[in-house]
């Protein structure tokens, strides 16, 4: 066991990790933030997506060790208290989720896209979302939500 | 949409939206009680073999290990897992199924032992140290090969590998085939796919003395309780099942899996809470469908279909106590779908092979009937040189013929199939697509359009099962006017809780925000059957309506006294009458705190009611047919595809679904269900396939090799609604959870064949992956040269 430091949603955590511990497990089980989900552990589904030092990252494909000192943001950081982020509001209004398990990846990916590309076309939206699987919605409403969020003031 | 629109037919947002969007929702794996241990299942590495011995010594002494359990040991503590649908009750063969294999394994991936340890890593490490010595037996991975007399036998006391053989249908199809102007025939193979919800399956069991609590990612909490009481020999009243948030299920999480008993037993033996969550590799073991059909269809020159004969061989893998093995029955009985063909014969063999079992899957076998029937109709059209749309029109059960009993016994409640056809052709601009197709063909490009009709029997009540076709709901108003709804139906993510809350709020005349829903807790909710077969709004909504009406009647009676008038209305949380207004919470408080002043009205604002829809009949008719479904949704799908003949890649250009599920409670939730089911069908039509190596081990064990549709693969799925209310359900609604899987498969397959018509291609199965499409093109070229 080695101690690493992670700043998760602005809170500093010192956590003991095994060399094999994945970042997703450190976040869920040691930082105690279970909004980030485990869907495949092979980097394919995106349910474990977090933001590491400003970039969306599949946290199942990162060893906790290699994230020592990193600044991590999870889906829990999106809303400001009861005030939902425009992306969250758009997903709610557009029925862009059903079971909600894929949401951490979908929401953080959508926010990242809109930060770099405030008015994306459909192809840009689809390319951004392609790394995240959803089995419930068929994606149409997710695309519509990203479009709606782009039209709303941040 | 205004904030006030929350009644039946409006689409208020999901009531649990904030919880899910902010990451606060608690899924199974998010529970971590103090002292919790982790379980890992050791699975068979051979497809068929006898277990000679299991050496657990090294595993037991590995760091952090609390317990290692083998099948022999488990069998001393837990009995056989009862079947969700018992094959014996349907005249079939059964086997004694245990939570861990005893003596013999019948598929690679079968649980043979389990390890419990402090951490997940320690459990995995110790599981690797469990040594299982197998006497490897010859195995069979193909259902047709399994039918051979000398095939390896999975269950040695059976006469073969057939769970059951059934014949369905009425009339004299052979005579009709002989009289027909043309007979088309074909063989269709539907590959093995899987449901793959994003949240894998899992259970967390904790014992406190002799009481057991199980948190489960499961669709049927009451059935899980009943089953655990049976396998573990525990009084059912001492078991509590909580299934609150489930991350998608699609049938996979119906009750009946071996790990349910296993995890509860491990917790009991370890004396600590034990959690097991399957990994994706384990999740992908579960099959959803795999069938071969050989059909003959007779038709007259005008396109009228006069006979259908279909021989189905369904590969269910090894037998399971879960409902999955029984799906092929519905493949047979859903034929001939919504077409008026009185002369049918469907022969069905349900066959076991040394592959992992099927688990129930959205579509529940009905999808295969749609795929085969829609291929057959297109082949008739092609053979006779008729428009496929017209052949459908000529054969649909006419709108004035309902209720209509099909040759296989289903009693279709209602519908307007021609109306769906007209709406679909209009929405997809059928003549326009044909014009574009002709233009593109000039330039050597292949555009195609395909239709797929789907008749979706929903809300089943099948004999010989753990479950029934009714459900139960309690509606309770508190002294503050707040409403709690406790229902036996569960929501794995589709949002039926919002729909049920809408119904209750509308019945009681209170704001939607006053209504709280409780689902998936056997200590709180009335006995019920959970989620399957598109039933939640039919029977959950129906029973909630009855219970809410009882409470409403009580509120009206109390308000009438308080307002001194018999003419009271409840709306927006206010009782109005005699020119005065009284907030509903004051009415509730009056009854519940001043009962003696109110007089002879019993001071209870609560009702528990069950709702049994009509049209269900288990008494076999003169042909032995039963009628297990109250209501039948219908839909017509049109897919437009572009096929690259060089690479074999199929690109979806447009998609229309005209959908009729009767009255829609919340149209946005209905569309969500439909788009999800269609997308699942698109995946199985184009990219998804579970493959096994020659030794029966799963080769497609991750999402890099088992390819779900991604955002860029799915075009805008355009929805058109038609509302033909069911005469047999409370609100005229029909199931909306499954329609789309079979229709999408069929529409895509027909579109690919249409696109490649200049090459003379005939589609014989799904998925139509690029290599499969190239093989079809090669075959057609060779055939014509």
TrEMBL record, chain A:
Residues 2-78 form the 2Fe-2S ferredoxin-type domain. The keyword Metal-binding applies. The keyword Glycoprotein does not apply. Keywords: 2Fe-2S, Iron, Iron-sulfur, Metal-binding, Oxidoreductase. InterPro entries: 2Fe-2S-bd, 2Fe-2S-bd_dom_sf, 2Fe-2S_ferredoxin-like_sf, 2Fe-2S_ferredoxin-type, 2Fe2S_fd_BS, Beta-grasp_dom_sf, Diverse_Oxidoreductases. This is (2Fe-2S)-binding protein.
From TrEMBL, chain B:
InterPro entries: Ald_Oxase/Xan_DH_a/b, Ald_Oxase/Xan_DH_a/b_sf, Ald_Oxase/xanthine_DH-like, AldOxase/xan_DH_MoCoBD1, AldOxase/xan_DH_MoCoBD2, AldOxase/xan_DH_Mopterin-bd_sf. Residues 22-138 form the Aldehyde oxidase/xanthine dehydrogenase a/b hammerhead domain. The keyword Oxidoreductase applies. It comes from the Bacteria. Keywords: Molybdenum, Oxidoreductase. The keyword Cell wall biogenesis/degradation does not apply. This is Xanthine dehydrogenase family protein. It comes from Actinophytocola gossypii.
């Amino acid at each position: 066991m080695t101690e690493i430091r992670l700043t998760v949603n602005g809170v500093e955590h010192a956590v003991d990790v095994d060399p094999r511990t994945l970042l997703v497990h450190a976040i869920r089980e040691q930082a105690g933030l279970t909004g980030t989900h485990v869907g495949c552990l092979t980097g394919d589904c995106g349910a474990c997506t977090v933001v590491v030092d400003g970039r969306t990252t599949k946290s199942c494909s990162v060893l906790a060790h290699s994230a020592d000192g990193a600044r991590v943001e999870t889906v829990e950081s999106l809303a400001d208290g009861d005030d939902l982020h425009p992306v969250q509001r758009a997903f709610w209004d557009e029925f862009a989720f059903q079971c909600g398990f894929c949401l951490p990846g979908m929401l953080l990916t959508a926010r990242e896209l809109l930060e770099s590309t405030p008015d994306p076309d459909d192809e840009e939206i689809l390319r951004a979302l392609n790394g995240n699987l959803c089995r419930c919605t068929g994606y149409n409403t997710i695309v519509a939500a990203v479009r709606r969020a782009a039209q709303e003031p941040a | 949409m205004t904030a006030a629109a929350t009644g039946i037919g409006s689409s208020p947002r999901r009531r649990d939206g904030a919880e899910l969007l902010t990451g606060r929702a608690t899924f199974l794996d998010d529970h971590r009680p103090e002292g919790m241990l982790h379980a890992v299942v050791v699975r068979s590495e051979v497809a068929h073999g006898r277990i000679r011995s299991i050496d657990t010594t090294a595993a037991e002494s590995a760091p952090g290990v609390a317990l290692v359990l083998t099948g022999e040991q488990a069998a001393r503590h837990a009995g056989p897992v009862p079947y969700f649908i018992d094959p014996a009750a349907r005249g079939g063969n059964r086997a004694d199924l245990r939570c861990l294999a005893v003596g013999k394994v019948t598929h690679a991936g079968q649980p043979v032992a389990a390890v419990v340890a402090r951490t997940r890593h320690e459990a995995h490490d110790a599981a690797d140290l469990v040594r299982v010595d197998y006497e490897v037996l010859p195995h069979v991975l193909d259902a047709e090969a399994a039918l051979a007399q000398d095939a390896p036998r999975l269950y040695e006391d059976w006469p073969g590998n057939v769970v059951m053989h059934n014949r369905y249908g009425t009339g004299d199809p052979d005579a009709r085939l002989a009289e027909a102007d043309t007979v088309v025939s074909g063989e269709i193979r539907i590959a093995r796919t899987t449901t793959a919800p994003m949240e894998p399956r899992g259970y967390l069991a904790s014992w406190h003395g002799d009481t057991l609590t199980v948190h489960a990612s499961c669709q049927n909490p009451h059935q899980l309780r009943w089953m655990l009481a049976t396998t573990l020999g525990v009084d059912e009243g001492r078991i509590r099942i909580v299934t609150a948030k489930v991350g998608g299920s699609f049938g996979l999480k119906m009750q009946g899996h071996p790990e349910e008993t296993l995890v509860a037993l491990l917790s009991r033996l370890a004396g600590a809470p034990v959690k097991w969550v399957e990994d994706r590799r384990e999740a992908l073991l579960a099959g959803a469908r795999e069938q071969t059909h050989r059909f003959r269809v007779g038709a007259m020159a005008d396109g009228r279909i006069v006979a259908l004969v279909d021989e189905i061989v369904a590969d269910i893998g090894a037998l399971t106590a879960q409902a999955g093995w029984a799906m092929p029955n519905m493949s047979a009985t859903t034929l001939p779908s919504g077409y008026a063909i009185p002369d049918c014969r469907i022969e069905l063999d349900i066959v076991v092979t040394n592959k992992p079992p099927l688990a129930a899957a959205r579509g529940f076998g009905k999808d295969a009937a749609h795929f085969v029937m829609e291929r057959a109709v297109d082949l008739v059209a092609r053979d006779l040189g008729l428009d496929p749309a017209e052949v459908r029109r000529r054969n649909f059960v006419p709108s004035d013929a309902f209720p209509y009993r099909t040759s296989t016994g289903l009693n279709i409640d209602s519908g307007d199939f021609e109306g769906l056809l007209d709406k679909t052709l209009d929405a997809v601009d059928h003549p326009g697509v044909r014009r574009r197709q002709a233009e593109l063909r000039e330039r050597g490009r292949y555009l195609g359009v395909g239709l797929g009709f789907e008749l979706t029997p929903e809300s089943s009540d099948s004999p010989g099962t753990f479950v029934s076709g009714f459900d139960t709901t309690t509606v309770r108003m508190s002294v503050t006017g707040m409403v709690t709804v406790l229902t036996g139906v569960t929501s794995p993510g589709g949002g039926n809780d919002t729909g049920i809350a809408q119904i209750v709020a509308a019945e009681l005349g209170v704001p939607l925000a006053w209504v709280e829903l409780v689902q998936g807790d056997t200590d709180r909710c009335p006995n019920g059957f959970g989620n399957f077969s598109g039933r939640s709004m039919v029977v959950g909504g129906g029973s909630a309506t009855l219970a809410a009406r009882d409470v409403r009647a009580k509120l009206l009676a109390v308000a009438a006294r308080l307002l001194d008038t018999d003419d009271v209305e409840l709306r927006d949380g206010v009782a109005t009458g005699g020119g005065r207004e009284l907030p509903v919470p004051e009415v509730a408080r009056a009854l519940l705190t001043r009962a003696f002043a109110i007089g002879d009205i019993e001071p209870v604002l609560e009702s528990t009611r069950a709702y049994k829809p009509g049209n269900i009949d288990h008494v076999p008719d003169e042909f032995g047919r039963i009628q297990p479904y109250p209501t039948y949704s219908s839909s017509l799908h049109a897919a437009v595809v572009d096929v690259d003949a060089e690479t074999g890649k199929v690109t979806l250009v447009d998609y229309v679904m005209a959908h009729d599920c009767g009255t829609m409670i919340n149209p946005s939730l209905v569309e969500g269900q439909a788009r999800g089911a269609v997308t699942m069908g698109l995946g199985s039509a184009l990219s998804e396939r579970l493959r096994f190596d020659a030794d029966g081990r799963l080769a497609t064990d991750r999402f890099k090799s088992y390819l779900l549709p991604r955002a860029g693969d799915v075009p805008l799925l355009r929805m058109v609604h038609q509302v033909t209310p069911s005469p047999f359900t409370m609100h005229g609604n029909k199931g909306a959870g499954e329609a789309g899987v079979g229709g999408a498969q069929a529409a895509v397959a027909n579109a690919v064949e249409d696109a490649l018509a200049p090459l003379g291609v005939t589609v014989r199965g799904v998925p139509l992956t690029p290599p499969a499409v190239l093989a079809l093109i090669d075959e057609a070229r060779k055939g014509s040269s």
